[in-house]
Amino acid sequence: MTRTRRSAKRTVVLSAVAAALALGVVPLGAGSAGAQAAKCPVKALASAKGPVEITMWHSMNRANEDALKALTDRYNASQSAVKVNLLNTTSYEDTFTKFRAGLGSGNLPDIVQLEDTSLQGVIDSQSVVPIGACIKADKYPTDAFIPRVLDYYTVQNTLYGMPFNVSNPVFYYNKQAFQKAGLDPEKPPKTLDEVRAAAQKIVTSGAAKTGYSIKLDPWYLEQWLAKAGKPYVNNGNGRAKRATGVEFDTKVGQEIFAWLDSMVDDKLALNTGPPEGNVDNLLAIGADNAAMTIDTSASLGTILGVLGGGQFPNVTIGVAPMPGPVGKGGVLVGGAALFIPKASSPERQAAAWDYIKFLNTAESQAQWSVGTGYSPNREDALDEPVLQAAWAKTPEYRVAYDQLVSGVNNIATAGPVIGPYREVRAEVENALTRMLTQGLDPKTALKDAATKADEEISSYNARVS
Q1: Contact by Cβ (8 Å): 269, 213
Q2: Which pLDDT belongs to residue 35?
Q3: What is the pLDDT of residue 10?
Q4: Of 102, 108, 111, 120, whose CA–CA distance to 60 is shortest?
Q5: What residues contact 271, with CB distance under 8 A and at least 6 apart?
Q6: For residue 361, what are the contacts with CB-CB under 8 A and spacing of at least 6?
Q7: What is the dihedral angle through the alpha carbons of 395, 179, 303, 74, rounded to the nearest 10 degrees?
């Protein structure tokens, strides 16, 4: 075959792959060996002619976007080798959809911020330079990073994305309602049984209409299983090799579903519906319709500002670790990581890495945490005066960090890696809805969710094999 014919054939193959990627029918990842062999041109910036301009797609909004812009402005002003432009792509889901489309069209950024649930899809696309390769090439130290944060984005010994904005679910409760119910407002519940007991006292005393407001977020099942030390999917939570099925239809999973069902049936909890755009679980506290709920720490600033800002004089918000099943585990890492697409030139990849390093200094992470409520991803950020002052003034901001560094680091707390993550969550959410609104019994609801989730995983795996 001549060189021209080989080149033409290669172009056809690459075009076919790109089209498949755009449709979400992506080729199987090259595995850890291919990832480990990847190179990151960290020195290419030194030979670049003039400033290297790069673009980052992100999903931060409101105060979070302001904080990201402030950090980026500081980076751009601190040196002349790189100019970073930010493009807000609205939401995590929109960003991932746009990124997948760009794999076919060629319209890609130099850095993309993707939610934790996108990890397997990113790996399968073979479209990013593993951050681990940049760390190795630059001899970049990672000792200060929280181990569990790095563990989440590491699959088969390869770190694919650089953790940036880190969150987890925390427990929000009304201290005034606790006092009215004869509960100690400084000793919030630690287990699901204790939440039920507190809810019963709150309802009996009339401190609130119900004790607990439930948002039907499938994320919480993942978190509760991790706290119990149980994996969510098989094959080492999808980390030893690709997950082929879920493992949540177990005794612990059944106990969680039964607890939720009994709380609503016994009128100790209020079902506020699906998670998308839902703040009714929080507003229920302000309206005295509930006294406790669970929500993300990423919204801590907004929650404290609204419920604790004087609009609801009947509310004094307390923040505590997420109650859950007893076990040898801990909470999962939420939020997103930063990825460097392979499609960028070596100079832009090197520039992207330089900017990513800046966002992940102790100083930047401290400032980011203060400006947003996200937890810093590295332990030495706690030495920064700006964070010390903020946490001394508002200690509620420290709860999510302390929760993240507590517990056991194992396969369960590293988190599940799933190809059709969103589809699996949708089946769990549907099962919760049917159980709490249509009377489906907990065991059947959980089994149905597991069966349909397995079908989604099988279908995805068939497409990428």
Answers
A1: yes
A2: 56
A3: 36
A4: 111
A5: 214, 216, 264, 436, 437
A6: none
A7: -10
Range list of H helices, 184-328: 192-205, 219-227, 234-238, 251-265, 280-286, 300-307
Q: How many Å apart are CA 443 and CA 225, to the nearest integer?
A: 16
What single letter denotes the amino acid at residue 358? F
Element (H, E) at 172: strand 169-174
Cβ atoms of 337 and 113 closer than 8 Å:
yes
The domain spans of the chain are 26-167+333-383, 169-330+419-454
Looking at residue 143, its pLDDT comes to 97
pTM of the model: 0.91
Could you give the C-alpha distances from 77 to 42, 81, 84, 304, 349, in angstroms and in order?
Answer: 21, 10, 10, 33, 20
With b for 16 or more beta-carbon neighbours within 10 A and e for fewer, the 68-79 pattern comes to beebbeebbeee
442 contacts 257 by C-beta, under 8 angstroms: yes
Indicate left, alpha or beta for 337 from its phi (over 0: left) and psi (-120 to 50: alpha). Answer: beta
Cα 93 to Cα 215: distance, rounded to the nearest angstrom: 20
Q: What pLDDT is stored for residue 308 in this prediction?
A: 87
Which two structure tokens, joined as six digits, stand for 108? 């890609």
Rg of the chain over CA atoms, in angstroms?
23
Regions of the chain short of the pLDDT cut 70: 1-37
> Which is it for strands 82-88 and 52-58: parallel, antiparallel or unpaired?
parallel
Sign of CA dihedral 138, 144, 147, 148: negative
In the three-class reduction of DSSP (H, G, I as helix; E, B as strand; rest coil), residue 424 is classed as helix
What is the CB neighbour count within 10 angstroms for residue 51?
A: 13
Domains 26-167+333-383 and 169-330+419-454 share a fold: yes
* C-alpha pair distances (Å), 55 with each of 86, 360, 444: 6, 18, 48
CA atoms of 253 and 232, how far apart (whole Å): 10
So what's the pLDDT on residue 331?
Answer: 97
| CATH architecture, domain 26-167+333-383 | 3-Layer(aba) Sandwich (3.40)
Tokens encoding 397: 């901001």
Q: How many CB atoms lie within 10 A of CB 381?
A: 26
Contact 339, 114 (CB under 8 A): yes
Residues 6+ apart with CB under 8 A from 49: none
How far is 227 from 325, CA to CA, in rounded Å? 6
- Paired tokens of 350: 């090197």
300-322 burial, b for 16+ CB within 10 Å, e for fewer? bbbbbebbbeeebeebbbbbbbb
Does domain 169-330+419-454 match CATH 3.40.190.10?
yes
